[in-house]
Amino acid sequence: MRANILGFVTVGVLSWSNAAWADAAADCVRFLTVEDYKKAFVSCTEAAEQSNSNAQYNLGVMYMNGIGVVQDYAEAVRWYKLAAEQGDSAAQYNLGLLYADGTGVVQDYAEATRWYKLAAEQGDADAQTALGVAYANGTGVVQDYVTAHMWYNLSAAETGGKATENRDLIAKTMTPAQIAEAQQRAQACIVSNFINC
Question: Model pTM?
């Protein structure tokens, strides 16, 4: 399985109304930053149990990688799923990885693709690349080079690298009309803020 920590989420806690929850969430990030994982686990758990998606994601990272806790993929899935259901794109992407690999869950390519798509539609470039791979190979979805090219193109615009290589490689198997369609779909996706993808 590809290691994917993605970094801990450190976004603001100022908008939360519950002071104790905000304090626990802030402590979660603070303790993770200074690598005091025992205290981070306590603080993250407290905030996560109050439905803080950032803390839920961070617990998922901790369990997935065995950081400050015994590595437990089923627990990683549990916490990622709670965060993902609240729209956390990093948790959605990581869930996709776990379903694709069958780590902590029964391997399910369609479920992996579903989570990748949710993250990709929020602009997550890694999820966009993963979707490109799924469509290029017909893994969890019907094989579709035009859609694969579209997702690779969107990711390549953000990150370049592997997405660019994959897009260029798949383009060799496509007609000019298919490439033009993929490019038009990518543009429509961007213009619609990922609604019409």
Answer: 0.85
